[in-house]
C-alpha cells in the first residue's frame, strides 16, 4: 500500500488510516459542517487542539506556522478498505474518481528520496529552557494550581520533504496502531500514533489514554526488563490513574448513570519502538447524544492536557513556545451508521508543502515527583522515530 501513496497526490483531501482489517482510504473534495452531524454518510477529518478555545473560555497565545482550521471534515467521493492486495469498495459516489483511486492503488510509483540534513532539524526550545519551565511548572504543582500537566516541546525542519516517502518510513519504523496519513490541499499530517482518543460502536463509547513510556531494546532480556519496570513504576501508574479519572469525569457528562467503567487499568502494550501504559475507559451513551456533544464533553483528551484540565491548558499555553494546532488534536472518521474512531495526533510530523516547513512535537507528564532530566529524555525518545523518518 505504501508504495502507491504518491498517486494519491492528485486528490485534494486524503485520509489513509489503520483499521482492524487493513488500511481505510478516503478521497474527496467536499467539506461539510459539524452541524450536519454526519448521519447517513462517511465523513473524514480533524479537530485541532486549539478547538479547545471554542469549548472553554481559553485562547492560544502562540501563532501557528500551519493553516489547518480548528475543525474540518470532508465528505468522500470514494472510500475503500485495502487488505493486503485486495481492494474492497465501501462507498463510491463518483465513478470517475473511483477509477482514478483504483488505478492509483494498483500502481506502484517510486517514492522520492531527499538527502535531508539533520542539522536543519532545530529544537524550538533548548534543554535549558525546557528544564527551567519544568521547574516553574513544579512550583505550580507545589502551590496546588495543578496536579499534572502535559508539557510539550517542538522541533522544526526548513526544507522540502516528500510527505509520502516520509510517512512510508515512519510506518516502517513504528507500525503504530493508530497511524494515519492526512492531506488537506498542500498541508499534511504524517502520524504514527499509538493512542486512541475515542471510539463509538453503537451506544458504547471508549477512550484509551496513554501515560507511561519505556524504550524497546533489541536485547530480549533487557526489553522484558524495561516492560516489567514500566508496569511496576509507581510514578507512571499514578500519572495514568490521574488521566483515567479525568476521562471518567468527562464521560460521565454524556453517559447513562452508572455506566462509566474502567475496562483495563495501566496495561502495558509493546509496539515496535516503545512500550506504552494504556488504560481503557468505557460508557453507555445517554439517548440523543450527538457527535458534537461527545466532543465538547471529552476534548481535548486528558492525556494531552492534565488535571485540572482547564488550568493545565492555560499553563501549557503560557509556557510552550508554539501553537499545538494539529498536535494533540485528533484525526479520524465517522461511518454512515454514526459509529466513529479517532486517534490522538502524537508522534506526528506536520508539513506545509508551499512554505516548505515541517514540525514535530513531543511531550510528557509533569507531576510532583517527576525528574526533569528524565522527562526531557522521554521527549527525545518520543521524537526519535520522527527525526529518523525525516533523515
In short:
By secondary structure, the chain is α+β, with helices and mostly antiparallel strands.
Describe this structure in words.
This protein is of the alpha+beta class and 391 residues long. The protein has one domain (2-390): Anthranilate synthase (4-Layer Sandwich). It has nine helices and 21 strands. The strands form two sheets. Strands 1, 2, 6, 7, 8, 9, 10, 11, 17, 20 and 21 form an eleven-stranded antiparallel sheet that branches. Strands 3, 4, 5, 12, 13, 14, 15, 16, 18 and 19 form a ten-stranded antiparallel sheet that branches. A hairpin with a 2-residue loop joins strand 1 (13-19) and strand 2.
Question: Which structural traits does this protein have?
Answer:
10-stranded antiparallel beta sheet; 29% helix; 9 helices; 391 residues; Anthranilate synthase; 11-stranded antiparallel beta sheet; alpha+beta
What's the structural blueprint in terms of helices and strands?
Elements: E1 13-19, E2 22-28, E3 30-32, E4 43-47, H1 52-55, E5 71-75, E6 78-83, E7 86-92, H2 95-106, E8 121-123, H3 127-142, E9 148-158, H4 163-174, E10 178-184, E11 187-193, E12 196-201, E13 204-208, E14 210-215, H5 220-232, H6 234-252, E15 261-270, E16 274-284, H7 291-298, E17 306-307, H8 309-319, E18 330-334, E19 340-343, E20 348-352, E21 357-367, H9 372-390
Antiparallel strand pairs: 1-2, 1-10, 2-6, 3-5, 4-5, 4-18, 6-7, 8-9, 9-17, 9-21, 10-11, 11-20, 12-13, 12-19, 13-16, 14-16, 15-16, 18-19, 20-21
